[in-house]
What does this fold into?
Amino acid sequence: MQLLIKHYNIGINKNLLYSKMERVGEIPFDSDRKLMTTIHRVRK
It folds into this structure.
């Protein structure tokens, strides 16, 4: 989320950002960790 906020503040479109960051993995929400994790491959 922080990455999205940072890019929004400097004028980068969320859809453009998502199109360059393919989601390749996901760790579901875990109440012990209190977070969910997504793993992305960044295309240049």
